[in-house]
Amino acid sequence: MSEPKLGVSAEGIAKRYQHRIKGEVWAARDVDLAVQPGEFLTLLGPSGCGKTTVLRMIAGFEMPDTGRVLFGGRDVTTLPANQRDIGFVFQNYALFPHLTVFDNVAYGLRVRNKADAEIRRAVNDVLALVGLAGYEPQFSSQLSGGEQQRVALARAIVIQPGVLLFDEPLSNLDARLRVLMRHEIRSLQRRLGITTIYVTHDQEEAMAVSDRIVVMNQGRLVQVGSAEDLYLRPRSDFVARFIGRINSIEARVVAVDDAGVELMALGRRLRVPRPDMAVAEGQAVQLMIRPEALHATAADDAQAWPATVSNCSFLGEKIELHLDCAGQRLLLVRPGGAGAALPEGQALGVTADPAAMLLLPAQDKPS
Ligand SMILES: Nc1ncnc2c1ncn2[C@@H]1O[C@H](COP(=O)(O)OP(=O)(O)O)[C@@H](O)[C@H]1O
Ligand SMILES: [Mg+2]
Predict the structure, then answer these.
(1) Measuring from atom 14 of ligand 1, which residue has the nearest CA?
(2) pLDDT tens digit sequence for 39-70
(3) Using the 8-state DSSP alphabet, how is residue 46 labeled?
(4) pLDDT band at 266; cut points 50, 70, 90
C-alpha cells in the first residue's frame, strides 16, 4: 500500500439544520482544520457538539452551507463521497449481513471494476492485516462485534484510500475490546501511514490514539493540540474539565509582577507563574490543579492547606483521596501500593507544585 499521502483541510465550513423542537441549529460553525499528510487527527467533544456533521462534510455525505473542503490542496467541496479518496468506518459498521466476509471486503474493489485475481489478493492481504485470515467464507451476521469491526476496517482500507475516516467506531464494543481495538487501529494507521480523521466522545480514547486532538463544543472548535497540550495547557474551563479531571479552586489575585502572580486561595497566599491570560490585582480567578499534581503532606505542615480525608478509594494502581479543605472538595490521586490508602477523617496537609497550577478566568455561574 503506497498511495501518496493526502493532507485534508476544511476552510470555514458550516452546517445549519432545521430542528423540529430547537428550531435553527448550527451543527457546525466556522470550522477550520488542517490535517497533515499521514496524521491521525481526532475530533473530540460531547454528544451533539457536531463531530459527525464535520466528518460527513469531509467525507462528502453532507454539503456544507458555507466554506470549502480540500484534499491534497484540491477543492472537493462539491464532489460526491464515492469520488473522494476516502475509506469510512461507521459506528454501526454498516456491513452487508447477507454477504460473506470476503464479499463485504471485496465490494469496493468490484465497484471499481478490479480484476478477480487482484481482488482475491487484496482481500486476503487486508484480512490478514486485521487478524481475520481464514474468515473469508463466514457471513458477517455470524461474527462477533469485534470481528465485525475488523471487517469494517478491512473494507475501508482495502481500496487503499488516501484518507481514512472513523465515526465512533468502537462505541458498540465492550470496554476491554475497545482498548484492544484502539491500539490495533492506531498501529495499523501508523504502518499504512494513511491520513486519518477519527471521531469520538471518549477523551481517553482520543488521547490514546491521536497525534492531535480537536476539541469541539456546540458546533465550534475550541482548542487543537496534542493530548499533552490539552491536558497540561487547557485554554478554557471547558477543555480543562473535558480532558481528564481537575480541581477548580476559587482564588483572588493579590499582586502581579513580571515573573508571577500572588494569589489568595483557600485561606493561603501562594505564588504561581505568570499565566497567558491578563490578570489584575483584585481579580477573581479559578486556580486549576490536576488531581495527580496535589500532594499529601503532614497535618502540621505550615506551607500546606489543612484538609481531612472524606473518602479514600483503593483502585489498585492508584488511590483516589477525596478531601475536604476549608469546605472545598479536592481530589488527590497518587500511586497505589501498600500503605498509600488513608482512613476517613485523617487530617493531612495538601500542597501542589506551582508549575502545575493553572489560572483561568473565574466562572460567571456555578457549573
Ligand atoms: N439531519 C439532521 N437534522 C437536524 N438536526 C441535525 C441533523 N444532524 C445533526 N443534527 C443536529 O446537529 C447537532 C450536531 O449533531 P452531530 O453532528 O450528530 O453531533 P455529534 O456527532 O457530535 O454527536 C445536534 O444538535 C443534532 O441534533
Ligand atoms: Mg456523532
Answers:
(1) 50
(2) 999 999 999 999 999 999 999 999 999 999 99
(3) S
(4) very high
Decide which of 3.40.50.720, 3.40.50.300, 3.10.180.10, 1.10.3720.10 is the CATH code for 8-241.
3.40.50.300
Domain chopping of the chain, boundaries: 8-241, 245-361
| Nine cell digits for residue 113 | 471494476
CA dist 221 to 21, 129, 292, Å?
25, 34, 28
| Ligand 1, residues at Cβ distance < 6 Å | 17, 19, 25, 27, 45, 47-53
With 0.90 as the threshold, say if the pTM is over it. Answer: yes
Q: Which chain residues have CB less than 5 Å from ligand 2, an ion?
A: 52
Question: Residue 119 is placed in which grid cell?
Answer: 481482488
Q: Which of 26, 44, 52 to mutate to test the pocket of ligand 1 (most atoms within 8 A of CB)?
A: 52
Atom 17 of ligand 1: nearest residue by CA position: 50
Q: What is the pLDDT of residue 38?
A: 96
**Which residue's alpha carbon is at the smallest distance from atom 25 of ligand 1?**
48
User: Which of 266, 263, 284, 282 shows the shortest CA–CA distance to 274?
Assistant: 263
Q: From the CA of 258, how far away is ligand 2's center (Å)?
A: 45
Distance 65 CA to ligand 1 centre (A): 14
The Cα 305–Cα 297 span in angstroms is 9
**Cell numbers at 81, concatenated:** 463521497
- Determine whether 152 is exposed, middle or buried from the number of CB atoms within 10 Å of its CB (0-12, 13-18, 19+): buried
| Fold for the domain defined by 245-361 | OB fold (Dihydrolipoamide Acetyltransferase, E2P) (2.40.50)
If you measure from the C-alpha of residue 117 to the centroid of ligand 1, how many angstroms do you get, rounded to a whole number?
42
Q: Is 152 helix (H, G, I), strand (E, B) or coil?
A: helix
**Amino acid at residue number 217:** N
